[in-house]
Amino acid sequence: MPKRTLKRKGNPKSRPRPKPAASQDFARADKALRRHLLYLLRGGGAHVDFEKTIADLPANLRGTKPAGVPFTAWTLLEHLRIAQWDILEFSRDAKHVSPDWPRGYWPASDAPPDEAAWEKCLADFRSDLKAVEKLVANPRTNLYARIPHGDGQTILREALLVADHNAYHLGQLVLLRRLHGAWPEE
pLDDT digit of tens for each residue in the chain (186 aa)? Predict the structure, then answer.
């Protein structure tokens, strides 16, 4: 008896081939992880939002310390900016050189030199945060691969570090504002 063959209509090369289930599951999980990371970086969930933290902060309180507090709003925000910038640049540039620890991560003075320095700090923080978000959101960014010039870091780990570090110091800023009586209670 001769072998039977199935006849199919159309060009077999043009038919879409189904993806394996594991590949589809990974793609869904990867997309969900990126959404969760972006939510976290933007101050979602139990985290305070950057914009809310700095909103209506009186200029005269930017460089003052309440009794027993070792930092000011300026030192916290400038530290946040420097650390976030360093993590971002490390993540995307093999030639990046980090500042000396700890001196290079904190400003020399308790108060911003002027309004322009304050505004530049805020603008740079926002810009670098957007760049971290863009890196995470890009599906071509392998969140899990080791950063070639690192010693085991991944983009996933660095994005979590940015979110965690920002949340920690933004919480300190909220406390500082409460001690100054400059936090809007809800």
Answer: 555 554 555 555 666 666 667 788 889 999 999 999 999 999 988 888 999 999 999 999 999 999 999 999 999 999 999 999 999 999 999 999 999 999 999 999 999 999 999 999 999 999 999 999 999 999 999 999 999 999 999 999 999 999 999 999 999 999 999 999 999 986
Please count the CA atoms within 13 angstroms of the CA of 49 that sit on its side-chain side. Answer: 7
Contact 79, 104 (CB under 8 A): no
- Homologous superfamily (CATH) of 44-180 is dinb family like domain (1.20.120.450)
The pTM (predicted TM-score) of the whole model is 0.86
Measured between its terminal Cα atoms, the distance across the chain in Å is 84
